Amino acid sequence: MFTLRFIAAAALAAQTSAASHSVRTRQSELRDEYDFIIAGGGTAGLTVADRLTEAFPDLNVLVVEYGDIEATPGFFDPPGSPPLATVRNYSVPVLTLDNRPADLGIGMTVGGSSAVNGQFFDRASRHDYDDWELEMRSLRDGTVFTRNATREVILSAGAIHTPQVLQRSGIGPSDLLKRAGIDVVADLPGVGYNFQDHPSIRLGVNITRNPIPNQDMLQTDPAYLQTTLEQFAERPARGPWTMNWDSQGVFLPMTNVTSSFQTIAASLREQMANGSALSTLPVGADESVERGYQTQLATLAGILENPAQPIIEVPFGGAEFSTPSTGVPTIGILLKPLSRGAVVLDPADVDAEPTIHYGTLANDLDIDIMASFLSFFRRLWDAPTLRDTLGVVETDPGPEKIGSDTPAGEVAAWLRDNVFASLVHPCCTAAMMPKSHGGVVGRDLRVHGASGLRVVDASVFSLIPGAHLSATVYAVAEKVSTLSE
Ligand SMILES: *[C@@H]1O[C@H](CO)[C@@H](O)[C@H](O)[C@H]1NC(C)=O
Ligand SMILES: *[C@@H]1O[C@H](CO)[C@@H](O)[C@H](O)[C@H]1NC(C)=O
Ligand SMILES: *[C@@H]1O[C@H](CO)[C@@H](O)[C@H](O)[C@H]1NC(C)=O
Ligand SMILES: *[C@@H]1O[C@H](CO)[C@@H](O)[C@H](O)[C@H]1NC(C)=O
Ligand SMILES: *[C@@H]1O[C@H](CO)[C@@H](O)[C@H](O)[C@H]1NC(C)=O
């Protein structure tokens, strides 16, 4: 039997069953116990709740969520639309990026980050999922209360808060827990480690032959804005406001990005052989976490050479992402970062938000990989359709700043000054790997060494998928629902 503590600041509990469901906002409205308790009413938690109540109509399921039920419009809605659902924003200094901040936003609402995403819904290459076979307080009044689950607790609080809840509940690296004065229930050194997100480099171009109409006219041309608002009000709606944030993207393997892919893979294997890769891990990484990282790097070296497994995503054609905004590709997203971060409690204040360490570009080879993106973009912009038809001209960084003969050290410094740490894709902090390799859950998503507790959210990924995350989060939640009780 497992008891989790929630320090709720505005706990909203939705008690659901196929026969009836209701929203409860006060502790006094709750039953003493439930068959299942799901911590986190986000993408994964609500999917699991839905499937559980379908499968067991007579059992009681409690979903605990700290956000509200909100009307959530799209991400790129016309002026005058209701505001976006509540996002909890983090701005975390990244040591390896000259202390520039990682900006991370998490949906703080029923629906979680599915309510505030850019609507890029895609799955990764099948190889990405094969690689996982690595398998080897009431916000109202601040009181702390408990509820027991007779069958199972499902933790779906997301990659930042799932490790936080585990660590607070005594499941995590024992050294950390002891320093924080928390009784160790299960020594699981991997909880919070293996943290990954998608870093990106955002370049600039000018489109000197901008077609008409173009997206900038939504800001600069009131008559065009009016026309598009009328189009949006039609049923069915049409026009530019019906677009999502990005509408297309290409996902290419390293073999298409640079002819140096084998050199980079060879350096990675050398880093593993001579042990230097381990020095890039965050402070406090246990031996088992190191072992898991070495195993992942062997897989990643293979990915760098696999012509069927993407390394870079280039989104384009969306609502917001280029300047001027005509959808010319300018953003290179590193889908398979080698660097790792960590999400750990502050031992001096376990009730505070956890400390989020981004390790972006900690491994130098991520710099070599991202540096190759620039020459890739230059080849792309040199295509006749972009160069001649749209008149694409590079403005940032520009060949005078970073040219083909710029020393590697200057290119690296430029990347550390310009790479974005987060694509708002935090994951992998309670990875599905063996305990001996820093893993936190097994194939059935049960937490190693604990009973009656599963994690179902993006924390369980071992390697970040080469895709936006929500489709895979849904898939994991659907998959766990098919596992026998
Ligand atoms: C979080 O950041 C987004 C994007 O910058 C912003 O629109 C929103 O208002 C912020 N939310 C809060 C609560 O500050
Ligand atoms: C939950 O279970 C624990 C251990 O059996 C028990 O001490 C506690 O009173 C229970 N809590 C509730 C709210 O029933
Ligand atoms: C972009 O190109 C247009 C057309 O040549 C020019 O008017 C404008 O000043 C340029 N903008 C920048 C930022 O270079
Ligand atoms: C990627 O490489 C493959 C194999 O060399 C080639 O057939 C394909 O056209 C390339 N694609 C792009 C977009 O460069
Ligand atoms: C280990 O190999 C990497 C990759 O070639 C290299 O950069 C690093 O200097 C080597 N470290 C040691 C200690 O030999």
TrEMBL record:
Superkingdom assignment: Eukaryota
Positions of transmembrane segments: none
Coiled coil: none
InterPro entries hit by this protein: FAD/NAD-bd_sf (IPR036188), GMC_OxRdtase (IPR012132), GMC_OxRdtase_N (IPR000172), GMC_OxRtase_C (IPR007867)
Keywords: Signal
Domain Glucose-methanol-choline oxidoreductase N-terminal: 158-172
Family membership: Belongs to the GMC oxidoreductase family.
Official protein name in the record: GMC oxidoreductase
The organism of origin for this protein: Apiospora rasikravindrae
Organism placement in taxonomy: Eukaryota, Fungi, Dikarya, Ascomycota, Pezizomycotina
